[in-house]
Amino acid sequence: MASRRLVFRLLAQHKPLGQLSCNQATNRCRSSQRRLSSFAHTSASQHSSTFLTKYFGWAALSLLAASPFLYKMAIPDKLNLDSLSLVERDQQTKRENAITDASPMRLRMEKFVKEKQKEIVQALEAVDGSKFQVDEWQRKEGGGGITCVLQDGNVFEKAGVGISVVYGSLPKAGIMKMRANHKNLVDGEKIPDSLEFFAAGLSLIVHPKNPMAPTVHLNYRYFETAKPDGTSGAWWFGGGSDLTPNYIFGEDAVQFHKSLKDACDRHNKGYYPRFKKWCDEYFYNKHRNESRGIGGIFFDDLDETVQDKENLFAFIKDSLDSFAPTYTAIVNRRKDMPFTEEEKEWQQIRRGRYVEFNLVHDRGTSFGLNTPGARVESILMSLPLTAGWKYMHEPKPDSREAKLVEVLKHPKEWV
Amino acid sequence: MASRRLVFRLLAQHKPLGQLSCNQATNRCRSSQRRLSSFAHTSASQHSSTFLTKYFGWAALSLLAASPFLYKMAIPDKLNLDSLSLVERDQQTKRENAITDASPMRLRMEKFVKEKQKEIVQALEAVDGSKFQVDEWQRKEGGGGITCVLQDGNVFEKAGVGISVVYGSLPKAGIMKMRANHKNLVDGEKIPDSLEFFAAGLSLIVHPKNPMAPTVHLNYRYFETAKPDGTSGAWWFGGGSDLTPNYIFGEDAVQFHKSLKDACDRHNKGYYPRFKKWCDEYFYNKHRNESRGIGGIFFDDLDETVQDKENLFAFIKDSLDSFAPTYTAIVNRRKDMPFTEEEKEWQQIRRGRYVEFNLVHDRGTSFGLNTPGARVESILMSLPLTAGWKYMHEPKPDSREAKLVEVLKHPKEWV
C-alpha cells in the first residue's frame, strides 16, 4: 500500500516561504504546506547536507537543543505502520497513550523539558514580578519549540527559557563524522544514505539588572537516532550549567557549585570533577585569556559507555531540578543590593565579554547563525539587553573588579 | 662575515613574556629581548605556520592592516648588506634618506598612513572638542603601530584610528595559498620555505553619540613580499570605506557615495560600480538577511593585473583624502539634532547588529581573535561603547526605522 513519507525539515527555509508572507513565530503557512512539500524536501536536503557535513558533531547537537526551529511538513493521506517515520510513530504513541516511564526516552525527555520550562518560568516570574512573553510554534503533527523571554523586568534585564523538539534526517557525511564518537550509530559496516534523528532540549539564560546578581546559563539536551525498523539506535545526553558573576560572592559560588556537585554525586562521584573541568575548558574566552564566568558543569556524548540510559536521565533530571531553587536564592540575596554607577559600568563591560564568547567561540551559536533559515531571535535570546566595550579598561589593583578577573584567569575549586 | 638575522615576529607571543611582566602597550621588555630571541623564533614559526596555513588570504591581510602587533626582535651585532632582511634594509634607508616618490612603496605607504592618521585624528578632535588617547609602540629598530581612541567624547561615543606596519615571514603553506590569487608571488616553479613580507595600513571606526549621525568604517592597506635579493616581489592594495546610519538621510548617503565615486572615477570609471557591489556583498549580516549599513566601496588584491603600482597608490591616496571632509560634514549636520529615547534605543539595537557582523562574519576580526598574542584591544576598538539586543524587536510599518531596514535588505544605488 502506497503511503507518503512526511517531509520533515531540521532547518526551516524562510526565504522561499517569505514570499508567501509566512510569519516565523505563528506558522501561518499550514494551509500551503502540501503544495510546498516537494520543494521543501529538496531544499532541506541540500542545506542539511552542506551544513551538517561542515559542522556536525557537538556544535550541531548543541544548537538543536539550544534553539527552536520551525518544521514544515506535508500531512500524509494515510498511515502505514511499516513505513512510519520516527515522528509519525511518536505522534501515534502520544495520541494513544499517556507518557509513562515505559515510553520511549524521546517522549519522556520532551515531556520533562516542557514541564521544567514551565516551572522555571514560574520561578523566575515570582522573583521578578512580571511575566514572560511566550512564543510557541507547536504543531499538532509533532515537533516544535517554545521560546519564553522576559525583557526589561523588575529584577531581570533579560531572561530567556527555550525548549525545542527536533525531528530530522542525518545525511551520510554527518553519520560518518558522528560515528567517530558513537561507534554504535550504525549496525555493521554499511553506512546508510541517511538516518532519522530526534533531539530535544531546554536552554536558558538570565541577565539580572543588579550588577551584584550573576548571569546564569543552562542547557540540557537528548539526542537519538532511529534504526530502519523504528527502534532507538544511538543516543546520548549533553548539558550543563554555568554562572557568570560581575562580582565574586564566595557564598553564591559555593552554593551554585555545591548544588551541581550534590546532583552529580548522587549519581557518580566522578561526574563533578570531570564535568567541572570540562566546563572551565569550554566556556573560555581564549582571545582574552580568561574564563567567561566561574563555571559550573558541562558535558556531552553521555551514552551507554558512561552509564545506562535510565540512570543518565535520572542524573539529567536531578541536575535540572536543582537549578531554580539555587539560582533564585542567589538572585534574591543580590537583587536589591546597592550599587554605584561604576559597578553598573563594570557589569556592561563584563556583558561585552559574554557577547564576545557567544558570538566568537560558542559552537552552537556559530553553527546556528551560519545556518540559513534558523530562528535567529531564539539563538540570540542569549545576548544581553545592554552591553559595552571600553578601550583598554583595566580594573584597579586589589579592587573587587580585579578580584573577579583573577578568578577568571585562574579557575577555583569552590567545593 | 657572520651576521645575525633579525628575529621578527608577526604575532607576538604574550603568554611566555607575561611571566616577565611585560606590558603590551608600552613594550617594557626590550632589555630581555636578546635572550628570548631563539625561543621567540621557534614559537613564532610554529604559530605562524598553524594560523597562516589555516586562514591565509584575505583575512590575514585584512588583519595585518586592521590591527597593530607587537614586535620582538634581537638586535644584530653588525649589519651585512648581503644578508640584510627587509626590515633592516628599510631601517637603513630611513636613516640615510628622506622618503620621496623614488623610495620603495613600503616606506611611502608607511609615511602616508601615519600622516593621514594625524590628519584624521585632528579633524575628528575638531568636531568633538576633546582629545584622542594615543597608544604608540613604535620601535627604533623598525615596524610598530599606533592606536588612537577617543571615548565618551562630546560628539563621538567611540572613535578609533589605528595604523600598523608589519614585517614578517610567510611560511610555505601560506605562500602556496596566496599564490592562487597572485601568480607572480614566486619566480619559477620552486616554492621557497618562507618569504619575507611587509604590510601597512590604516583602519578607522567612528560611533557618534547622536543616533542621527552615522557610524563609519574605513581601512586601506598595502602588502608586499620581498625577493631573496631584497627587491620587491608581489604586491597589492586593499581597502574601502562604508557608512552605517541608524536613520536614512538621503543627503548623507549621496554625499558619502559621491565622494567615493568621484575618487574612483578620477582613476578608473569601472572602479566605483565594481567596488560598491563588492562592499554590499562583504558587509552583509547574512544571518539577518540584511546589510550592515548603506555600503560604500570595498576592494582587495589590487595589483599590476588591475593597474600599475603608482596609479593604484594615487587612487588609494585620493580615496583616503576624501574621507575626513566628507564624514565631518555629515556628522556636523547631525550631531546636534534632537532625538527621542526610542531613537536612542534603536541606535543601540543597530549597534548590536554591528557587533554581530564584526564578531561573527568579519574575517579579519575572527582571524585576529583566534591568533594567540594579538593585541585584542586594537582589534576590538571597533566595538561600540554601548550596544543592545532586544528580543523580537520589529520596527513599526512605514516608520523611519522600517525605512532603514528596507534599504539594508535592498541596497540602493545612491549616485
TrEMBL record, chains A, B:
<dbReference type="GO" id="GO:0005737">
    <property type="term" value="C:cytoplasm"/>
</dbReference>
<dbReference type="GO" id="GO:0006782">
    <property type="term" value="P:protoporphyrinogen IX biosynthetic process"/>
</dbReference>
<comment type="pathway">
    <text>Porphyrin-containing compound metabolism; protoporphyrin-IX biosynthesis; protoporphyrinogen-IX from coproporphyrinogen-III (O2 route): step 1/1.</text>
</comment>
<keyword id="KW-0350">Heme biosynthesis</keyword>
<comment type="similarity">
    <text>Belongs to the aerobic coproporphyrinogen-III oxidase family.</text>
</comment>
<dbReference type="GO" id="GO:0004109">
    <property type="term" value="F:coproporphyrinogen oxidase activity"/>
</dbReference>
<keyword id="KW-0560">Oxidoreductase</keyword>
<dbReference type="InterPro" id="IPR001260">
    <property type="entry name" value="Coprogen_oxidase_aer"/>
</dbReference>
<dbReference type="InterPro" id="IPR036406">
    <property type="entry name" value="Coprogen_oxidase_aer_sf"/>
</dbReference>
<dbReference type="Pfam" id="PF01218">
    <property type="entry name" value="Coprogen_oxidas"/>
</dbReference>
<protein>
    <recommendedName>
        <fullName>coproporphyrinogen oxidase</fullName>
        <ecNumber>1.3.3.3</ecNumber>
    </recommendedName>
</protein>
<keyword id="KW-0627">Porphyrin biosynthesis</keyword>
<comment type="subunit">
    <text>Homodimer.</text>
</comment>
